[in-house]
Each structure stands twice: as C-alpha cells, then as structure tokens.
Amino acid sequence: MHPALAIPELQFAIACEVNLCPSLYWLKEHHDALYRLMMVSRSWKNIVEPLLWERMIFNDMLFLIPAWSCAGGRKVEITVHRAVTASDWESVCSRSCFTRWLYVDFPNFPDALDEDVLATLPPADVLFQRLENMTLTGPFVPPSLMSRYLVALMPHTLSHLTIERASFMLRGIPALVAARCVHLRSLEMRGLGKFVDSDIPRPSPCAAFLESLRACRELADVDIAFRAFEYSASYLCSLAAYPILRRLKLEVHEAKEEPEELGVHCGFPARGFVVLQSLELSFVPCRTVTAALESIGGSTQLTTIIITVDITDYESYHAIVAAISSAGHPAHLTTVQLYRYSSFVRRLPSYGVLDMKILTLLSRFRLLETMVMTGLARSALTINDCAKIASWWPELARLTLVTKADHNASCMLEVLGTFRVCPRLTELYIALAETERDDVYSA
To answer: What contacts 293, CB < 8 A, 6 or more positions away?
Structure first.
C-alpha cells in the first residue's frame, strides 16, 4: 500500500466517496466495495466499518446471529442450529450501533422470527442507538407477530419515517407506531399501488395514525400519496393541527372525476397550516387545490407553491391562480409552479390562453425567484408583455411560461433584451403569440 494511503484523513475521504449510495438498488454493490476496502488493513477497518453499517436492510442483519446460518436471495433462508438467546443479539448490536438508515422489507419476513426470538430481541433504543431514518414496506396486511416486530424495531430516536403501502402496514398498530415517533421530523406515506379497493382495511388506519401524530412537536415535513379511495377528510384536519408543519406534499391518484365520496375538497379547515412554508399538490381535483389555498389564507410564512392539476377549462385555471394570489404574502412568496396535465386525451379548449389577465394576478409578488406556468392551449404574450413581466419580478432566476403545444419554446433576442432588469435570471422559456413570433422572424 502506498504510504499516502495510510493517512487517516485521506482514508476517511476515500471511504466517504465509496460510501455514496444513490439508491437501495445499489446497496449490495455499495456494501461489497466497502467490505473490500475494510479488508486492506486494521486502520482502514476502523474507518470503514462504521460507514459499512450506516445503511442496512434488516434481513441482512440476521446473518450476524451466531445461532443461525443464513443464505441470501429474494427471501432470506435461515438454518436454525440452536435457540436464539439474548447474547446472540450482541453480535448484531456491535454493528447496528452504527446504523442510521434501516430498510425493513416485510415481504421477506423469515419464518425463523417467531415468538421466542421476539422475546430475546433487545430494546430498539439499544439495538439501533443512532437510527434516524426508517423505511417500512410490505404488499399485504402483516399478521400480528409481524406487526409486533415492526414496533419492536422502532427506536425513539427516529427523525425520518417512510411507510410504503401504509394502509396495510399500520393495520392494528397506528397508536403504537405513533408513540415511537416522538422526535419525528419528516414523514412520507405511500399508498397501495396496484392494490384494489377491496384490499384496503376498513377503516384505513392512516386516519388514526395521522391524528396520533398531533403530539409530535418536531414534525415539520409531511409527504403523503394515496389512491383516491384511501383518503379521508379527517387527514387534512389532523395535518392542519400540526404545530410546526412547514412542508406539505399531497397526491391523490385516480381522482379523475372529483368524486364526492373522496371528500378531500371539503376536508381542509377554514383556517390552518399557520406556519406552512411549502405546499405541493399533485394530481388532486381542482376544488381540492382551491380549498387548500383558501385554508392557508394569506400566510405570512408561505414561500413555495407547486401544483400539478388536471384543468379542463380556462376559468378553472384562472380560479387557481387567483387562489394562489390570495394564499401568498408579497414579503415571502418566492416560488410559484403550476403544471397543467390531462388525465386522458381531450381537445384543449381554444379559450385556454396564456395571457396577461392570468399573470397580473401574481404581479404583487415582487420577490418571486421561480415562476413556472405550463399547459394552456396557446399563448397571447407579446414582447411588450415580457417587458412588463420583467418589471414585476426583478429577482427572477427561473421563468417558464409555455403552452401544451409549445413546451420547449425558446426566446428571441428581443425577448432576452426585455429581461436585462433581472440580473439573476439563468433559465428562460416563453411562448409568444403566433403573430408576435411571425413579426420577430420577419425582422
């Protein structure tokens, strides 16, 4: 080994570079590389080992139990040599004390994890002394034993929790999981994916879970994405009551016709989300968007509004922009992004026009840094309009005003000249009116 590679600072820098793991799918290759590095020398081992165990899949940790021998694969196969005792978990604890991120994949729940093994499991705060980030997943309703393991593995140190197929994973244990989330700072919940309406537990445990989290004094970031039939209007009242909620992202899939039974549009309280800074709404009905913005009602904290919505007519588009104008405060709002999409193929209405009537509603937000508006049928903007837009928002760094038909619009030299008053502008896409572009081309 080259003498330079014995320098601890260089070893640590190299180990950190190897430790970069883009996703769970690369975790095995990432661990193999770290393991080879750890075998170089004792000094390398001392530096690399904590990094090797930082990100772990729970089933992989079972390989460390001396009472078992394990074979990997899509499902961990365990050969039992003797009964597991509390001392067997010491081998796991010597590594799991470094773990900060844990992925618990319940479809691969080994048969060997029975009641007797659960009784030997050390407290989660001992097993995972530094655990901050936990992901729970499973495609079916976990039986009672599996649910008890789930709760037993959750330490009180958790600050970030992701629950996939949450309506199933939380069945029977929402209050127990919430009790482990006293220091939770961010929550991500995913819906049932390909599962159908008949598969969902009734009522969904997610409502009780979100209600239980009202006691979390540190929860500031919530990202939930469910299918329409999984929603309950009570979710929104619970979220509005979180004392320091600063970011909310809400997705509703398959809400094509704004079904009355969805109830999301009427679930927002008249006033709430008093410290919200970022609101993201994706694939939700138009009425849900306006209800959410009205609930915020001129918040002095809001800096970011990002909306992706299926808008069928110009009036709905105008109503949403007007609601954005009412929800934001000129002293704080810096980002507005409004993306229009079609849930199915339809003729775009001829009156869906990107024009100054819509943009004027947002002219009072002088501190806007990002302004994105897409998806209307055609544009009516002129070069003179661009000059007026530039005077409204001198702090712009990104401006995108394009139509469905002209999504990759590029700017003419004359347009660029109007934005000289925006020194921070680095990204600019504008769709001009057809007649305006003809004039520019001829010039």
So the answer is: 279, 305, 320, 323, 324, 326, 327
